[in-house]
Amino acid sequence: MSTDHARQLEKMATLERSSREQSKKVRLLEARVKALEQDNFALQDKASKLQEKAKAAAKEKKGILFLLWFLCFLSSFFCAHVFLALTELKKLIVAKDDLVTDLTNIMYRHADAVEKLAQIKAYADKQMVSDMKQIRELAADRDQKA
Question: Which tens digits make up the pLDDT trace of 57-78?
């Protein structure tokens, strides 16, 4: 019974470590997504400014159209990158939720056993106090007789 309890505690500890690792990964991915969103916003802002300049200069120079196309390509590339990061983040959140659910189930499944063990320990503590008092009384009686 104690090996099963130890295994369950070990499994709970492993799940907690895994949950913490998943949380770290989620935080890192969230930071990455935020940075990519900022980069994407900055690039989109730059792209819109360059689009305005390209319209004015398109009559004189046709080479600016290539630059416009390139900026649009970069913007779409970063949008795709942000989408992939968000997809990965969603997968990690689902995995973390599953681990938390498993940990909660394990905790509730063994709540009765933990309570029973606590009662057994309390009874053993009371019994030990009683035995120690009896030993003290016997020792005192022996000392008085001697």
Answer: 656 666 656 766 777 887 888 8
pLDDT digits (tens, 9 = 90+) for 84-98: 888 988 898 888 888
Domain of residue 133 covers 112-146
21 and 77 in a common domain: yes
Q: Are residues 132 and 68 in the same domain?
A: no
Residues 6+ apart with CB under 8 A from 16: 103
Q: Are the C-beta atoms of 40 and 82 separated by less than 8 Å?
A: yes
Q: Mean pLDDT in the chain? A: 83
Distances (CA, A) of 82 to 12, 23, 43, 93, 129: 34, 19, 13, 16, 65
Check if the beta carbon of residue 106 is closer than 8 Å to that of residue 12.
Answer: yes
